[in-house]
Specification:
CATH topology of the largest domain: ph1033 like fold
Protein name: Zinc ribbon domain-containing protein
Radius of gyration: 18 Å
Structural class: alpha+beta
Number of domains: 2
CATH class of the largest domain: Alpha Beta
Organism: Nocardioides phosphati
Helix content: 10-25%
Order of helices and strands: EEEHEEEHEHHHEEE
Strand content: 15-25%
Length: about 260
C-alpha cells in the first residue's frame, strides 16, 4: 500500500522528516482473526490501532502517546508492528510515517496523530529467522514499544519489502471482524458506540478544531475502568481512555470516574 491509498494531508497535517530511525510496536491481535489484525472484538476495549484502513496511528485512539510524541520529535519515521500468537512474537508489517498532526488533546500533552505514506503487511515473520542485528533486537523482550536505529530499520524494511503483500487480506479481516461484532452486538465497536468502521470521513472529528484547548488532561487508564464525560456527565465503561465520548460524541472530555463502585 502506498501514498496513493492515503487521503492527501491538508492542514493541520505537516510533513514528518525521516531521520532514519524507527520503532518496534506491539499490538494485541484478535483471537477470532484469520490474519493477525488488531483486537477489534476485545471486550470493553475494542482496538482501533494500527488503523490500516486509514494508514494512521493515534488518530482515533490514545495508544502509546510517548511513542507518537517521540516519532514526531525525532523523525523516527518507520513503525514495525509485532504481535504474539502461540507464544511467539511475530513481525507482521510496517508503516512509513509521512505526516503528523496534533490530536484533540493537543501536542503539549503528546497527542499526535500519525499518517503513513506507505504501509505493508505480510505473512507473519518469526524473528528467529532473521539475521543479526534485527534478530537480536526483536527477540529481546519489551512490553509495548522500543526505538530502533537506522541499521535495523533498513534491514527490517528490506525483509518485509521482499515478501508478498498481504495488506488487502488484513484489511478484509478487519472488515469481517467488524461485521461479526455488528451482527452479535449491534455495533462494529460496542465500547465506542460505533456501528461502522473507521474511514477518513471520521478524521475531522478527531483532529484539532479549537476544542483541544479545553480538552481534559486525563491518563490513559482508569483504576475503576469507568470514565465520566465533562460535557454530558455520562459515565462510560472502557478499559482504556477513549478520545470521544460514546454518549454525546464530544472529544477530549473523558476522565477517570473515581467514584464508581
Amino acid at each position: 500500500m502506498t501514498a496513493s491509498d492515503v487521503r492527501p494531508p491538508n492542514p493541520p497535517w505537516t510533513s514528518l522528516t525521516d531521520n532514519g530511525g524507527g520503532y518496534l510496536s506491539v499490538y494485541l491481535n484478535d483471537p477470532l482473526a484469520r490474519w493477525p489484525v488488531r483486537e477489534v472484538t476485545k471486550p470493553a476495549d475494542n482496538k482501533s490501532d494500527p488503523n490500516i484502513e486509514t494508514s494512521t496511528y493515534g488518530l482515533f485512539s490514545t495508544c502509546e502517546p510517548s511513542m507518537r510524541k517521540a516519532i514526531v520529535s525525532n523523525g523516527a519515521a518507520t513503525i514495525f508492528f509485532m504481535t504474539s500468537r502461540h507464544r511467539v512474537r511475530w513481525l507482521t508489517g510496517y508503516y512509513h510515517i509521512g505526516w503528523s498532526a496534533p490530536g484533540v488533546r493537543g501536542a503539549s500533552r503528546g497527542d499526535y496523530a500519525l499518517a503513513a505514506d506507505a504501509i505493508k503487511f505480510v505473512d507473519p515473520i518469526d524473528p528467529k529467522t532473521l539475521a543479526k542485528p534485527a534478530r537480536a533486537a526483536l527477540l529481546v523482550r519489551f512490553r509495548t514499544q522500543k526505538p530502533i536505529g537506522p541499521d535495523i530499520v533498513q534491514q527490517l524494511r528490506s525483509e518485509i519489502d521482499g515478501k508478498t503483500d498481504r495488506t488487502e487480506d488484513y484489511l478484509a479481516e478487519v472488515k469481517r471482524l467488524e461485521q461479526f461484532s455488528l451482527e452479535h452486538s449491534g455495533f462494529a465497536y460496542p465500547s465506542w458506540g460505533r456501528a461502522d468502521g473507521f474511514s477518513w470521513d471520521d478524521a475531522p472529528t478527531y483532529l484539532p478544531s479549537g476544542a483541544e484547548a479545553g480538552a481534559v488532561d486525563a491518563p490513559n487508564s482508569s483504576p475503576t475502568g469507568r470514565w465520566r464525560c465533562a460535557r454530558c456527565d455520562r459515565v462510560v465503561a472502557n478499559k482504556a481512555l477513549l478520545k470521544r465520548c460514546p454518549a454525546c460524541g464530544d472529544t477530549g472530555t473523558l476522565s477517570p470516574d473515581l467514584d464508581a463502585d
